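Subgroup meeting minutes
Present: P.N., E.W., G.H.
Scribe: E.W.

1. P.N. recapped why we're keeping a running log of single-chain structure predictions: easier to compare across weeks, and new members can see raw inputs and outputs side by side.
2. G.H. added today's entry (704 aa).
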Amino acid sequence: MEVLWVLRLSVCDLSSALVVKIRKFAISKILHATLFFFFQMPRSYNRLALALARVTHSERVWAIDVPRISEDGSRYVGKKFWTGTVGAMYDNSCWNGKPSIYEVITERDNVRLYLDCEFDLSDTQLLTKEDVFTCVQFIRSCLNQHLRLSFPSLDINPNELIILHGCTPIKMSLHLIHRSIIFDNAQCSCASYVHELNAFLRHQLEDSDLNDFLKENLKKIIDLSVYQKNQLYRTYGASKLDKMRPFILYDESNFDWALNPNWSFSQMQISLEAWCRTLVTVDIFCHSEILQVQPSEFLSVRSPELARQTLYHTSCFTDNMDPQGRYLQKFEMPQVERVPMLVLSSHVPRASSNSETVIVDDTMWIVNEHNNPVRLSDLEHNQCVFCLKCETQVAGSEIRGVGISSAKAFLRPNGTKCVFCFNCSYPMYILETADQYGFVPTEEEIIKSPHDKLNFAGSEDIDFDACSRLVFLDAPMGTGKTHVSQWYLSRHGEKSVLAITFRISLAKYTSERLGLKCYTDSDAFNNPEHHHRFVVCLDSLWKVEKTDYDILLLDEGTFLQYHFVSGTKKGELAEVIDVFKCQLQNAKKVIVMHDRIPESTIDFYANLMGLNPDNKSEVTKRKFEKPTPLRPVLSYEDKNVMILQMIKDYIGNFNEADMCSNRPFVVFCSRADYALLLLYILRQLATEKFGDQVCTLALTYAVN
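Output recorded in log:
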């Protein structure tokens, strides 16, 4: 049996009909080819999650710019997501003419080393072609040098670095893809390496001979946000919608600005092979060595921008990076198995949205790289975990890791534990919740006194004049630390004094007790004479011009240290530390007082002052071992029974001679009306029982 197919062709001005005879067995081949072509065409989705759920192993997820109109009628550019093969998306670029295609880098993809470098200029500044050449040469030089330092055993071909640019006189825009370096994922391995590269580049700028204009802009040229979950990376020959600024190959010998209103993908003559070479995600059948990079413990917890500054400083002759400790091969990594989670969201510590750091206690929970819940106290050095800010919260109430763990737990030099995320630069400091004893004193560091208070009844338990330049006084609450400092300052009335606190209320209290001028007074900073004997909060320390005090007093010094990493601290952390460090180094005597001062606090202040904490000629440590009295806590399920018990104790311990109770007590209420009711009951009872002379009952409450 024969089937006749008629195809009507139009060639120039001639029209004819071509009759093709096809035997029956050929129909199946045509249908198979048609269906194959149909299923290779990219499929469109409005949501990224839907595209990720339906993508097959032979496909990838892509995105394109689409014009949209909001409810108020304004226009904006949205994204539509596609799934399709590389060849299908290349064909789509050819057919589209002016494509705006993005490669979606998912958490499961192996990726080549990629950088997104850009900065915008103001209307009064313009880039020259020479500026672009200088920037590219500097970035390329830093990258090649840092790759050799980081991966000395790898054979890295510098010619495998591909640079795309979309530069205009008012915008620097570069995409760098290094085909020789392949990471197992973007959001942990590639991100960790690029954070270190960024710190290395910024440090190299300090010793470079570039002009100030380029130095300032190169500090912020690497975009560190493109390594988060499911990021979009614009492809070769594509432009943002209506921008007319496609990415083209960087060629210094034939350089031209990327702005071209008449551009088209076909005119650029980009072959499929050349287009594929610029893609970031790596084919699953790639046989190259795939690197798994863990966050580096050398990165500063203050900021990734300060990372490895000492490691690559010109004064350092050796590189103490341990490749085996951070750069591991694929087969060396433990297998990650997902297990059911048992942790509720309420058990996981959260940080406020405006906080850059958070302090949590070690009884809280976190999810490790194996998706198991562990307490923060059980974390080990170099253990990878899921970030509490950018990853764990994504999972909602289930509290399970999403994708690749991008945070790492490590011990700081002073022994404290920290978790740092290399995805969002989020540090979390872990404090021991047990009743810490503080530093362990030697026999001569213990203050032995027959009294419960320091320097009581004429005794001289501690003399700051006989101590070293840095003094630590560890004594429980109520043992007279403030009294000792008051006596010391009054004996040296001619010396300049600066007391630093972290709370306004503590500053006012210190001002009243020690007779110092408080920074909260209206004219405190207008008259420099007031700064001679002054008390100030840490966040306002930069306003104090005087930097050569005779005595620097730090009451509650451990809490002052923790204030540096708390969410309530305002301003730039690095600037506050620099000012604080300057005051410490210039002061003739520094006195730190607190109850149960840990070794980490001693190391903190000694390191800032450049002193050896174990050198007794530089640092004096004294501990007054008097236990803080613990009061019994009684619990009642019935509030009426509790009130009756209070009334019984009040009457039973009332002293009619003094018209007051010998056993005072404090009641904490959650609501003001509860406090008013309780006050009314006790006052009525006292008046009826003992007369109108009772004046011991008072009410103090605060409404938050």
